[in-house]
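Researcher: Please generate the 3D structure of the following complex. Treat every line as part of one assembly.
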Amino acid sequence: RKEVEQDPGPFNVPEGATVAFNCTYSNSASQSFFWYRQDCRKEPKLLMSVYSSGNEDGRFTAQLNRASQYISLLIRDSKLSDSATYLCVVKTSYDKVIFGPGTSLSVIP
Amino acid sequence: DTGVSQDPRHKITKRGQNVTFRCDPISEHNRLYWYRQTLGQGPEFLTYFQNEAQLEKSRLLSDRFSAERPKGSFSTLEIQRTEQGDSAMYLCASSPRLAGAETQYFGPGTRLLVL
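Model: Done. Output below.
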């Protein structure tokens, strides 16, 4: 089993739609969680950290369920500019950073 | 530009040759990571440094791969006797060692093609 798994995708959604990405991780000792965004042929960039209480940044909401070892990202009112690959990232207690395989999103006009 | 830089941006080599990549992190960052990314996959962790100390190496990092960060600033990643399977994007990232400072800042990557 991979240490971090994500929805395989791709997701093709119309502008204005709400889309949710799921991620699971296998190491129960993992301490920090993030969502990164990667545009085609570009480097990954931090989208948001994920906190146990859940957190929101504009149209983006991240949730963490430690008991289920599950992380989610919700994007509301999708924009064309949201088209990218979304990477779930988990950091272990030893500072090892593990990226999921990514889920591709295409927002269609 | 004070971001992470990598050199070269592209490298084409023949199988069996050695290649070396360089990463210059953001100057005040003492953590430096190397990743490998292939098409359709997320970045795979290779190794990381805190200052000049190499603290962890992935089992993906075979004995043909070696990384150094001799003065705790820039880092090099060398691949000896390259194989076609080494073709990938090699990404470097840095982060500060501060409480709560979790963000990794990535460089643009070095794209390697082994013929």
